Amino acid sequence: MTQEPLLRLEDVTKRFGATLALNGVHLDLRAGEVHALMGENGAGKSTLMKILAGNIQGDSGRIFLDGREIEIRSPLDARAHGIAIIHQELNTVPHMTVAENLSLGQEPRTALGMLDRPRVRREARDKLARIGADIDPTRPLGSLSVGMQQMVEIARAVSENARVLVLDEPTAALSRAEAQQLYRLIGQMRAAGVGLVYISHRMEEVWQLADRVTVLRDGGYVGTALMGELTPEDVVRMMVGRAIGNLYDHAPRHAGAIALEVEGLTGGSIGPVDLTVRAGEIVCMAGLIGSGRTEVARLIFGADRRTGGTVRVNGRESRPVDPYAAIAGGIGMVPEDRKVQGLFLDHSVERNVAISSLERFTSFGVVQRMAARSAVTQQMQRLHLRQDALDLEVKALSGGNQQKAALARWLMRDSKVLVLDEPTRGVDIGAKREIYELIDELARAGKAVLVISSDLPEAIGISDRLLVMREGRIVHELRSADATEEEVMSHATGTAARQAGVVQEVRA
Amino acid sequence: MIDNGKLAMAPTAETRAKRPFDFAKWWDRIGILVVLAVLVLLMSSIAPNFNRVDNLLNIARSISVNAILAAGLTFVILTGGIDLSVGSIVAVAGVVAVVLAIAGLPAPLAVLAGMIVGAACGLVNGALTAYLALAPFIVTLGTMTFLRGLAYTITAGQPIVSSGLNFKDIGNGYLAGIPAPVIVMAVVYVVAWFLLERTRYGRHVYAVGGNAQAARLAGVRVDRITTSVYVIAGACAGLAGVIFAARVISAQPTAGTGYELDAIAAVVLGGTSLAGGRGRIIGTLVGSIILGILSTGLILLNVPFFRQLLIKGVVIILAVAIDSLKTRSLPFLRRDGVTA
Question: Residue B313 falls within a domain, yes or no?
Answer without folding.
Answer: no
